[in-house]
Each structure stands twice: as structure tokens, then as C-alpha cells.
Amino acid sequence: MIVAMHMDDRLVHGQVVMTWIPRVQANVVLVANDAVFNDKIRRSTMKLAVPTSTKIGFRTIDGAIEFLNNPQNSSYRVMVLTNNPFDAEKICEHVNGVEKITIGGIRKNAPMIRDNLNLTLEDIGSFERIMAKGIKVGMQPTPNHKFEDLSDTFKSITDKQ
């Protein structure tokens, strides 16, 4: 069962480990990212950050979809981590049970939408397609922060285009 889907360009980092995992009571952290899956050093570094009581898995996006759809994995409390809206969109297209996506931060060479959130129009389009499926998308760096729905923000940007 997916207990959380969180998006952050850093993937596994202190806020995820210290606040998100305990709050959602995840017993599996699934890093869904093609590049990380193929980077042994990054995988090793991320493994060190996660408590030994929590399993961490690394999958390509297609592998993550397969894992999340496998009934044998339904007893796990899975926190899915992605670092971009395109990967999240693909997962949301092929996996049931995602209710909302929380964004901790996406910092890249793109227009700043708000602090720690830089997006292209293509990124926003991806988020809009996710939201069209009834999935909420919002900023929430930690569970202690209020979830800030981004639908109006995205709409105001695309309306200007």
C-alpha cells in the first residue's frame, strides 16, 4: 500500500528520514528513478541514510510500477520517492492508490514558482495531468508543514500563457 508519494530533487535526505518515514509509518522506501537505479554510488549513499528498521529499494520507473502493482507487496507500507513530475505522472498513470503528491522541493534551472520550486511549463503540464486524475499536488517539505495545494498556482501560470 502506498502511504505517501513525495517528490524532492534530493530524493533521500534528512527531512525524509527524520520526519516523513516516521509520520507515515513507512516500512519500505521506494526510490523510483532510472538514473539512481543505474548509479551504484548514489544507491549506496542513500542506503546509509535510512534506518535499518526501514527497507529501501531502488527501481527504474517501470520497475517501480511493477513493484507497486504486485499483490505480493500489498502488505508493505511504501513511501514512494521521485524527483520530477514526469516520473510521478507515469507512476500515477499505471498505479492505483496515489491520493496526493507532496513536494519538498525541485530546484533546477527553470522559473521559480515559489521558494524551492522551479518548474518549466512542461513540468506544470505534467502536474496538471496528475491532478486531472483526482490526485492532489502540493508543497509540503515536512509533515509538520501544512499541505499547500498548488492547483491554483499552476492554473494562474498556464492561463497567462
From TrEMBL:
All residue ranges annotated as the PTS EIIB type-4 domain in the record: 1-161
Top-level lineage group: Bacteria
Pfam families recorded: PTSIIB_sorb
GO biological process, one term: phosphoenolpyruvate-dependent sugar phosphotransferase system
Alphabetized UniProt keyword annotations: Cytoplasm, Kinase, Phosphotransferase system, Sugar transport, Transferase, Transport
Matches recorded under InterPro entries: PTS_IIB_sorbose-sp, PTS_IIB_sorbose-sp_sf
Protein name per the record: PTS Man IIB
Biological source species: Lactobacillus kimbladii
